[in-house]
Amino acid sequence: MPDKVSMIVFSGTDDKLIPVGVISQAAAALGYEVQIFFTGWAMFKLLKEPMPETWPKEFEGMVPKLKEGLARVKAPSWKDMLKEAKKMGAKVYVCSLMAEAAGLKKEHFDPSLVDDIVGVTTFLENARGGQVLFI
Amino acid sequence: MPDKVSMIVFSGTDDKLIPVGVISQAAAALGYEVQIFFTGWAMFKLLKEPMPETWPKEFEGMVPKLKEGLARVKAPSWKDMLKEAKKMGAKVYVCSLMAEAAGLKKEHFDPSLVDDIVGVTTFLENARGGQVLFI
Amino acid sequence: MPDKVSMIVFSGTDDKLIPVGVISQAAAALGYEVQIFFTGWAMFKLLKEPMPETWPKEFEGMVPKLKEGLARVKAPSWKDMLKEAKKMGAKVYVCSLMAEAAGLKKEHFDPSLVDDIVGVTTFLENARGGQVLFI
């Protein structure tokens, strides 16, 4: 049985989506079974019409330099890294409770990113025996 | 031996307490051994006279809609979910170092929520061999 | 084989560095194999000339009392706790992708804190089979 890495992505600021992409892609490439469960504010980043960019208030002044640096080293966007991870088998889910509370259905989400809307129980069962990160 | 889910809850914004409640209740219902270790700002949410509501500055504008949606789908409060988890065996601890630094003793905390004040070493020993989330 | 605790430290606010120090030192003392991978904003706290203190906007008003309380209970600084953990074998790494994007090399980082700059793949391989916290 392969090792598993599961992520619960709650924070919706764009900075924290970078490690979501990086870890997903690296773990999938290493042969890990990867699942990512988007909930909270982060869920709105997966919509066909996603929430605009949001950066943490504490570090707003450092964002232009971060973006410039990531462009210079040709880092792919977090969405492109997530898509690469998905090509290697990673699964991306949206939390059914939070989607329902926001009045969102599967058709509202970008189908190139989201595999399904599932409950936390399904997520926990899939995650059993593996590593879990809360981001 | 049952699988274990342990959580370190540090962030004191109310949004992140929703997944604490949801995950606790779902994991306890699945038969996981659940322990939750409140520290940092989150500890003040467990007081008999808790800290007032605090929401992340970046998403303040979305809070009324979130609350309305959670009410519409009849989601229980995080405290009620935590209490359900506790009925199924989940344990809730407060970090002794942070409590002492804040001048707080066991009698300051809501006894319907908090089982005990313990040190991080006890938490880590209880968490050994299981999943750990930092929230 | 000893149990392992790995941490990805992304958030750069000073409050979250307290649990990084506390958990590192406690886990190392318990005999865990500990590695800490600094990335994102947190990386700038390890520079020879570190980023100034930054606290979460939501809790700024509570910071003076927190600092006063930690001083009163004689809690060591997070850097001193990290150094204690390192004496017991903990390893501290900086993320190569984020360092390169920021134009930072090994010589920019405080050698009493940082062991090496490594990629996320190395981190994940080291973390395999253990607990992983995202802070």
TrEMBL record, chains A, B, C:
Highest taxon of source: Archaea
Protein's UniProt name: DsrE/DsrF/DrsH-like family protein
Species assigned in the record: Thermoproteus sp. AZ2
Lineage: Archaea, Thermoproteota, Thermoprotei, Thermoproteales, Thermoproteaceae
